[in-house]
Design a protein that fits this description.
By secondary structure, the chain is of the alpha/beta class. It folds into 3 domains: about 90 residues, NAD(P)-binding Rossmann-like Domain (Rossmann fold, 3-Layer(aba) Sandwich), CATH 3.40.50; about 200 residues, Mur-like, catalytic domain (UDP-N-acetylmuramoyl-L-alanine:D-glutamate ligase, 3-Layer(aba) Sandwich), CATH 3.40.1190; about 130 residues, Mur ligase, C-terminal domain (Protein-Tyrosine Phosphatase, Chain A, Alpha-Beta Complex). The protein has 17 helices and 20 strands. The strands form 4 sheets. The protein has a 6-stranded parallel sheet.
């Protein structure tokens, strides 16, 4: 789409135009900077505001953009008072007083995903869910490449959506968070899915019903709805008037698992696509991820043989059910990306034998009692650490032996003392990492280092 067409689309949907709009970009992170570059290309004037005193990217941005007003150290009401449009980064809550007041005074909220949707004419596949969305997004990107498509992959994962426009792709695959979706109104994906809904981000959403409602916004428009038939909240999102494909690891739907003889297959309707044992990922939740990716690919016409070829070589994501080492017959698995209860539950349910679980961190307001049934069934003992270890211990009291650690090195050492040959030790925290680590990657790396130090 050319520049004039994008401006006309923005004007049509949001009354957003270079001449008369006063745009305030809220948040100077990677999303905010991608928005700034996009607006500059369309000759918009705008200002940026960030509540932090010194956002990490501010020096470089100001060096290259000296004419852009940048306000830091709080949300100055005066900057919001003159804005006609707020482009609010996902990391900033819409419940901020300055934002609520600006909206009451007539300002419009626009998201980076709205800007993206107004700028592309090629198909978009949109993926959200509490768990598995990064895996499915990456998986589907690999499938599209194997099918010969020039594909661009990003959104909540990796490259911000607006920066993908530079790739002039023929297909866009976007991972979207609830925070991106809650402020998005014009997305119309060719195919979209909510992979699952479990308690997460309840520090930002009022309850799980509101959280599910924000996830459901990924289905706005008239594209193919890909539905997880195993998740009651997602199943309830079906629209009888829309084209739908469903996936399940429990029931026979459009995409499912079934035995042919002694071999279990990934199936599409009555056709076997590939043996499940050829999927090189641990856990049955990854079979569900593969089925979801296949459904999305079929929805936009990708070749099934090419997609299965990509699945057979898919190595998974760092810090997501990643095998770190096998030492003295014990398997050590890094699932540090499990930053919520649902991800931890999915990881545990993928095991046939009982495991030793390392968990804990910042629970983000979640009810940790939801862990109790699966921990009782799948864990022989649990090692807890981090800010909300007391909360988790109370929830799990009496169902499994619990041990406490001050840090990752101690947690790994305790797990090693508990494990026997043939056991698996799983780091799947069910919590965010920022109480003790820079991010979940740092947490996973420290786990790997502590495991490898056992050799020494």
């Amino acid at each position: 789409m050319d520049k004039l067409a994008i401006i006309n689309s923005l004007k049509k949907h949001f009354s957003l135009e270079p001449q008369n709009s006063k745009v305030l970009v809220v948040g100077l992170g990677i999303t905010g900077i991608s928005v700034a570059h996009f607006l500059q290309k369309l000759d918009f004037s705008f200002a940026i505001i960030d509540s932090r005193n010194k956002p990490p990217l501010i020096d470089e941005f100001c060096l290259h953009n000296p004419d852009v007003p940048v306000f830091t150290g709080g949300f100055d009401g005066a900057a919001f008072a003159v804005a006609t449009h707020l482009i609010v980064s996902p990391g900033v809550s819409l419940h901020e007083k300055s934002i609520i007041k600006a909206l009451a005074n007539g300002a419009k909220i626009v998201s980076d995903i709205d800007l993206f949707a107004c700028a592309v004419t090629m198909p978009i596949i949109a993926i959200t869910g509490s768990n598995g969305k990064s895996t499915v997004t990456t998986m589907l990107g690999d499938m599209a490449k194997a099918a010969g498509k020039h594909v661009a992959i990003g959104g909540n994962l990796g490259t911000p959506a607006l920066d993908l426009l530079e790739q002039n792709a023929e297909l866009y695959v976007l991972e979207l968070s609830s925070f991106q979706l809650e402020r998005t109104s014009v997305l119309n994906a060719a195919a979209a899915t909510v992979l699952n809904v479990s308690a997460d981000h309840l520090d930002r959403h009022a309850d799980i019903a509101e959280y599910a409602q924000e996830k459901q916004r990924v289905y706005q428009g008239d594209g193919v709805m890909v539905i997880n038939a195993d998740d009651a909240l997602v199943n309830a999102m079906q629209d009888a008037g829309r084209k739908t494909l469903s996936f399940s690891i429990k029931h026979e739907v459009d995409f499912y698992l079934a035995y042919q003889g002694e071999i279990e297959y990934l199936m599409y309707q009555q056709s076997p696509l590939m043996p499940l044992h050829e999927l090189p990922l641990e856990g049955r939740h990854n079979a569900a991820n593969a089925l979801a990716a296949l459904a999305l690919g079929v929805a936009v016409g990708l070749d099934a043989i090419a997609m299965c070829s990509a699945l057979k070589t898919f190595k998974g994501l760092d810090h997501r059910m990643q095998r770190v080492a096998q030492l003295h017959g014990i398997t050590w698995v890094n699932d540090s990306k499990a930053t919520n209860i649902g991800a931890c539950v999915a990881a545990l349910e993928g095991y046939e034998r009982k495991i030793i679980l390392i968990a804990g961190g910042d629970a983000k307001g979640a009810d940790m009692a939801e862990l109790t049934p699966v921990v009782k069934e799948k864990a022989k003992s649990v090692v807890l650490m981090g800010k909300d270890a007391d909360l988790i211990e109370q929830a799990l009291a009496g169902c499994v032996p619990i041990h406490r650690a001050e840090n990752m090195v101690q947690a790994v050492q305790i797990a090693a003392s508990l494990a026997s040959r043939g056991d698996s030790v799983l780091l799947s925290p069910a919590c965010a990492s920022l109480d003790q680590y820079k991010n979940y990657q740092d947490r996973g790396n420290q786990f790997a280092e502590a495991v490898l130090a056992l050799v020494a």
